[in-house]
Amino acid sequence: MDIRPLTMTGKASLGVVSPDGKFVAYLQRDEAGLSIWLRVVATGSARQIVAPVIGRTYHSLAVTANGSSVDFVARDKTRDWDLWRAPLLGDEPPKRIATGLWSAVGWSSDGRQMAFIRNRGYALVVANADGSGERALATPRKGTQFHNEYITGRTIDRPAWSPDGTRIMLIAIDRTRPANTGFDLVWIDSASGAELRHSEGD
Fold first, then answer.
1. CA–CA gap between residue 156 and residue 158 (Å, rounded)
2. Direct distance between the N- and C-terminal alpha carbons of the chain, in angstroms, rounded to an integer
3. Does the pLDDT of residue 161 top 80, yes or no?
4. Alpha-carbon span 15 to 20, nearest angstrom
5. How many helices (H) and strands (E) does the chain have?
6. Which domains are assigned to the chain?
7. What percent of the chain has pLDDT above 70?
8. Residue in 188, 65, 174, 68 with CA at minimum distance from that of residue 117
9. Residue 151 φ then ψ, to 5°
10. pTM, whole model, 2 decimals?
11. Residue 189 to residues 42, 124, 166: CA-CA distances in angstroms?
């Protein structure tokens, strides 16, 4: 195993790797604010792909399944969290493709669909790769809430598809148990939205 640092500034966070392993996108915080950068693994060269905007927060980076773009969630003071997409290469500006997100995006293995949490953890939504065709797939059990990374800051807290695309796994919070102890794994049928399995644990 070869482990080596990609940045040494202490300003980088929430890095995500492209499917081919050639690029890493990450947040950078400096005097100008938060921005999103792309680093080429082989050469170590880096460039800014999303500039800082006053009053805007970035979160929840995810490289698209085809490796062409990075998705990220952003919020202005006057808006809720929205999903944006910026190309990894080229100079096209980011574009908004979905609104009201409450998690990072999880991609199906074929790259045709994405899933995310909305409505403050009370809905799992599935959409086409370009953000069209949204449908609310599932809601959590009574007394529970779909977990999201804004509670802990951990980017692993996003919907995860099974390799065959038939199931989506989520972390759920059981609100009837003591704080920070009721974390369960939930499997959702990606076609019907039915809960296939609820694995209780801490």
1. 6
2. 31
3. yes
4. 15
5. 1, 17
6. 1-101 (2.120.10.30), 106-202 (no CATH)
7. 89
8. 188
9. -75, -40
10. 0.81
11. 39, 11, 6
